[in-house]
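Quick one, probably user error.
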């Protein structure tokens, strides 16, 4: 698909992620630079279906780069997952004479964009999700900020665990991907890390490392548990029952999504936004912007969504090696 593009809609969809506003800012200002007219769509695909669309200018995105969340708001939209919803989205795009759509979000949001693209609306996708679980890209906007938020929380929890000679089980986000979990375990010096991609044996992978550390003289312990594994409260109770060590559970929850984005997220979002707008100005569409080998590039959307992503085994191996206190 290659056509003249002038009017570009942009929306944020799915779970919010730090850096979405930086990506929005980059798309809007780069569109203006390349002679395109940007239109902001509030509340994601739900806003598209309801026509919550307004033209944006440079001032519209002033002072948003350092803000967490998304100033365009985001919402789940079950209706858009139906053929009727896609048809309605196409009709609304025609009402506002949108020539293309930029979607800032995760894998599910990209599948919605693909459906629109198949129906005839040119799209461009920018990966923004704290889970870093989009297969075609090495890095997603929001991931670095989320990891730093978890790292800071784990450091504080460790202080309390040390003071009270206890074990703390910390649940971090990641329903189907353990990237936040394994990196925070490695950065936080956890004794154990449980991932949705990898089964675990309670005695071998959790109890044994804790007791090995205790017998070597350590008096506080951290277990990182990914959201997708679940059972955090029960796990804490089980650890205390088997070891006799006072054990607490902490579920970090949505605080991992918030906060001012890090430099890495701001810069990555800015580079991705500029590339998306520039490609559209050239009539190129149906692409997913990605980071590969440390550089911003782009892939055809069907190819991007067909890929799978695997956890780096060296991260898991290193976390396991360094967890033992000798």
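Nope, works fine. Designed sequence:
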């Amino acid at each position: 698909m290659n056509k003249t593009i002038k009017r570009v809609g942009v929306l944020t969809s799915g779970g919010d992620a730090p850096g979405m506003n930086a990506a929005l800012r980059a798309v809007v200002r780069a569109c203006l630079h390349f002679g395109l007219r940007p239109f902001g769509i509030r509340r994601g695909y739900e806003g598209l279906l309801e026509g919550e669309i307004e033209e944006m200018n440079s001032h519209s995105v002033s002072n948003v780069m350092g803000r967490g969340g998304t100033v365009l708001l985001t919402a789940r939209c079950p209706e858009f997952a139906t053929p009727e919803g896609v048809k309605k989205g196409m009709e609304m795009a025609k009402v506002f004479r949108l020539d293309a759509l930029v979607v800032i979000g995760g894998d599910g949001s990209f599948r919605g964009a693909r459906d629109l693209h198949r129906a005839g609306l040119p799209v461009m996708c920018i990966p923004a999700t704290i889970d870093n679980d989009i297969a075609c890209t090495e890095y997603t906007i929001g991931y670095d900020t989320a990891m730093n938020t978890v790292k800071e929380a784990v450091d504080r929890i460790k202080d309390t665990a040390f003071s009270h000679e206890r074990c703390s089980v910390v649940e971090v986000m990641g329903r189907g991907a353990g990237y936040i979990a394994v990196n925070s375990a490695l950065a936080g010096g956890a004794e154990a890390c449980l991932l949705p991609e990898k089964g675990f044996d309670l005695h071998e992978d959790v109890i044994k490392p804790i007791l090995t550390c205790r017998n070597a003289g350590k008096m506080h312990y951290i277990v990182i548990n990914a959201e997708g594994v679940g059972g955090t409260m029960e796990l804490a109770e089980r650890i205390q029952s088997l070891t006799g060590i006072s054990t607490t559970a902490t579920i970090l929850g949505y605080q991992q999504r918030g906060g001012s984005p890090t430099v890495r997220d701001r810069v990555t979002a800015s580079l991705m936004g500029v590339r998306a707008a520039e490609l559209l100005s050239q009539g190129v569409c149906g692409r997913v912007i990605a980071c590969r080998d440390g550089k911003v590039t782009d892939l055809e959307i069907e190819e991007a969504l067909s890929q799978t992503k695997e956890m780096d085994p060296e991260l898991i191996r290193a976390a396991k090696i360094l967890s033992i206190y000798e």
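Residues 41 and 53 are 5 Å apart (CA to CA).
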